[in-house]
Specification:
Helix content is 37%, strand content 26%.
């Protein structure tokens, strides 16, 4: 048997995690001097309230090598392990997991750098879970994942830029200068990094549809199985409309709505929305 594992940045719904028996290690979120575990004892609303009250951004952190050793050791010794984590360009999680795997049992643990985040990770996790259900072993799944990480469309459009600007996680944001807060950047994962590839101006809810159309036109060679609309929006009626908009295009077999967890929320803030899907090789 192969256990499929990931970190809490995967942003899959709890239903999908349970259905596919995914094992998740939560990342660390720090508010002021207090540490929390992502989606365990802290949630996006806690983050937004903290920032609005204190005008201080929270911090996120990887789990330690010792934490990963404990996580891997908690799984059945006879099972192989596939661990898919947040991009190594954005976090030390993959490196720590790799070091831990060598101390636990390198032969049965396969570490995959997603080169992505959020449901960009989640899509790879679901792909791995499907391969495991088909009876593929750890090495086979690992090799197929390495190929698929190169074909993963993960992007977001962001309404509130102060989180990105203060956090310094996105290349190119500072150059917008005095017009910073009037622009809605499109952020894509490119070679594992968050890159600003285009920008939109106008009402967030209106330009979301243009952004989605642009992404589908830019990356049309989709794997049709799954698509995610992942967001930090409060307006659930709007999200339902966006999901239906994508469903009505009849491109994907399933279109899921997923609320981004604390890790993504720390860096993008409220009113962030992305369309994410895997690409054919």
């Amino acid at each position: 048997m192969v256990n499929i594992c990931t970190d809490s940045c995967n942003d899959l719904t709890s239903e999908l995690i349970e259905e596919n028996n995914i094992k998740v290690i939560p990342l660390v979120v720090t508010l002021g001097e207090q540490e929390y575990y992502d989606n365990v004892n802290i949630h996006p609303e806690d983050i937004f309230n903290f920032v609005n009250k204190n005008n201080i951004l929270p911090k996120t952190a990887a789990r330690s090598i010792e934490d990963y050793k404990e996580f891997f050791n908690s799984l059945p010794k006879e099972n192989e392990i596939i661990y898919i984590g947040i991009s190594s360009e954005l976090s030390s999680s993959i490196n720590n997991a790799m070091l831990a795997s060598k101390e636990v049992d390198e032969g049965r643990i396969f570490i995959v750098d997603s080169r992505s985040l959020s449901t960009g990770i989640g899509l790879l996790v679901l792909y791995a879970a499907r391969l495991a259900k088909e009876g593929k072993n750890g090495k086979e799944i690992y090799e197929m994942l390495l190929k698929q990480t190169q074909f993963n469309q993960a992007s977001f459009i962001v309404d509130r830029l102060d989180y990105l600007y203060k956090g310094g996680r996105c290349s190119g944001i500072a150059r917008f200068g005095a017009n910073l807060l009037k622009l809605k950047p499109c952020l894509e994962l490119v070679n594992g990094e968050i890159i600003n590839t285009s920008k939109y101006m106008g009402n967030f809810k209106k330009i979301v549809y243009k952004y989605i159309d642009d992404m589908l036109a830019k990356y049309p060679n989709v794997k049709k199985e799954n698509c995610f609309i992942t967001h930090t929006c409060k307006d659930e009626a709007f999200i339902i409309e966006v999901v239906e908009y994508v469903r009505n295009k009849n491109i994907f077999e399933k279109v899921y709505s997923s609320r981004a967890g604390s890790t993504i929320s720390c860096h993008c803030g409220e009113n962030t929305l992305g369309i994410l899907y895997l690409l054919e090789e």
